[in-house]
Amino acid sequence: MKEYVTPPPPKNLESSRHRFVKSKKRFSIRTRMVLIFGALAIAGLMLMTFIAVRIARKAVLEKVEAHLFDKAADTAAILDGEIKQWFEYLDGIASQDDLHDENISWKEKARILEELSKDEAEVIAFAIIDPKGIYHLPDGQQFDVSGQKWFQESQGGTKRYFSEPFRDVETGNLIAQAVVPIMGKNNTLMGVLAAVFDGYTLSNMGDLIKVGKTGGCFIISESGINIANRNRELVKNMYNPIEDAKTNKQHAQVAAVIQDILKSNTAENKISKTKLTSQAKILTLLKGVYI
């Protein structure tokens, strides 16, 4: 029996198969190169977009920060101006002859000021205090206020002073006071004149300050107490975030920001990813206004 031998494939078929394999390899390399360069192009485009967004965001943020700096400074200047006007008005009253006349009793001087306060809607009362720190009322009552913070910080009433909100010893209401000295001959202190305001007077001033759609201003004392705020409860309770953070760790970040800006003359800080603050000094208060 004759053995069957498989004939070799035609040369042209072998050549075609070889060309197909080479073509497939070339196609595979080309595809890889296209994918690689395409991926690099996309990555480069994404990187350029990211950088462009970062640059644009930084530019916008710098403009916002500059605006906040200017706004804080302008706000402080406005509040300074308002307080200085009250000081000038009180200086005018303090220069009246009746308050300098030693023949007129403290009770009578208090009565004169009581009548004057009726024409001032923004003033609860005008008060007169003698150099020893005794507050005299129109009905003859007397209160020793020499130990109160406002009297001590105004150096016994010898310098202009606008107080933080505090509780009135007589009524328990939240009040603030503007204080000027009544000076006699040879620059001697004859008494102290005070205008008593509602404790939210500074907050009312701050309410008029608008920053964009959601921004506003608040004022804190050098110890961190809210003395003016849109949230009146914070003022009423004399809220201090620095003290609160000692027991409430959730407020630690806010307290840290407040401490930082209290230490500096000008500062901007992020409280969160969506909030910025800037501050400037109110010279008449020696406190900060924060935007």
From TrEMBL:
Alphabetized UniProt keyword annotations: Cell membrane, Membrane, Transmembrane, Transmembrane helix
Domain Cache: 59-239
Superkingdom field: Bacteria
GO cellular component, one term: plasma membrane
A Pfam cross-reference name: dCache_1
Membrane topology summary: Multi-pass membrane protein
InterPro entries according to UniProt: dCache_1, Sensor-like_sf
Chain segments annotated as transmembrane: 33-53
Subcellular location: Cell membrane
Name of the featured protein: Methyl-accepting chemotaxis protein signaling domain protein
Organism annotation: Treponema phagedenis
